[in-house]
Design brief:
Order of helices and strands: HHEHHEHHEHEHHH
Radius of gyration: 20 Å
Largest sheet: 4 strands, antiparallel
Strand content: 5-15%
Shape: globular
Oligomer: single chain
CATH class: Alpha Beta
Number of helices: 10
Helix content: 40-55%
Number of domains: 1
Number of strands: 4
CATH architecture: 3-Layer(aba) Sandwich
Distance between the termini: 53 Å
Strand order of the largest sheet: 1-2-4-3
């Protein structure tokens, strides 16, 4: 039998229907404190959170994210920010000027740390019995979120997570994944295994949707194609520029 942590990870699912039961202040503080222990690159702590409990504001976030009911019905919404404003202040205290927010490496660092933070928040929440869903849809209109939160330059709302008590009558099934052998590749990248895994997973996911009566949901190949043949959030780059971010390599 897996230990409780592994079991929780194996049973992870995105919760899109909440019961309306409250998230206690004590539990929320535990979740935030536990997540804050997540690692950040060079211990720069270039991540900040905006924790939203006001229902009117959560509904505004839902609209910014494209009108998502799963966001609007959450008891808490946590926005994960890349925060090079904090580090810029630290560098200024040393009498120097920060450059990392102008570099491609800076954006990668911020994105990696934001992803780690998302996992930490969701694991902590799940351990206390709460449901969550990762929301990348806030990048549908990042400028609106920047203005809603009054974000300073060198910060950017990368993604967020809902938080609430799952509706026990509407729990989704655990979604399957690509075959392990096409995901965890031994020693070298194997495109044949990756391609075979795509074909297998396309069939598996089709059966998974059909078993739930969701016959109109696209297969893996079609869903991925629908998203990745276009730039589905085409204002992200401009919003990053307005926030002062660059995407260059600076040679010392």
């Amino acid at each position: 039998m897996p230990n409780p942590v592994i079991q929780q990870m194996l049973e992870r699912r995105s919760i899109r229907n909440f019961s309306g039961a409250p998230v206690s202040d004590k539990d929320l503080q535990i979740i935030l404190s536990a997540a804050q222990q997540a690692p950040t690159s060079v211990n720069g702590e270039q991540i900040s959170l905006i924790v939203t409990r006001d229902k009117d504001t959560i509904r505004k976030i839902a609209q910014i994210a494209g009108g998502q009911p799963q966001v609007a019905s959450a008891e808490v919404f946590i926005t994960i920010l890349i925060d090079f404003n904090r580090t810029a202040n630290a560098v200024a205290m040393a009498g120097e000027k920060q450059l990392i927010d102008q570099c491609a490496e800076g954006l990668i660092v911020g994105a990696v740390d934001a992803g780690i933070m998302l996992q930490a928040l969701q694991m902590a929440a799940g351990s206390l019995g709460y449901g969550t869903t990762a929301i990348g849809g806030i990048r549908n209109n990042p400028q609106a979120l920047i203005e809603l939160f009054g974000l300073p330059p060198r910060t950017f709302p990368l993604l967020g997570t809902t938080l609430g008590v799952a509706d026990p009558d509407k729990l989704p099934r655990i979604k399957p994944r690509v075959p392990l052998e096409s995901f965890a590749l031994n020693e070298r990248y194997d495109n044949d295994k990756v391609s075979a895994g795509i074909r297998d997973y396309d069939v598996t996911l089709r059966h998974w949707w059909d078993a739930q009566g969701q016959f109109d949901m696209p297969s893996y190949i079609q869903s991925t194609t629908n998203y990745y043949k276009v730039d589905y959030f085409p204002t992200v780059g401009e919003a990053l520029k307005r926030q002062g971010f660059g995407l260059i390599d600076i040679k010392s």
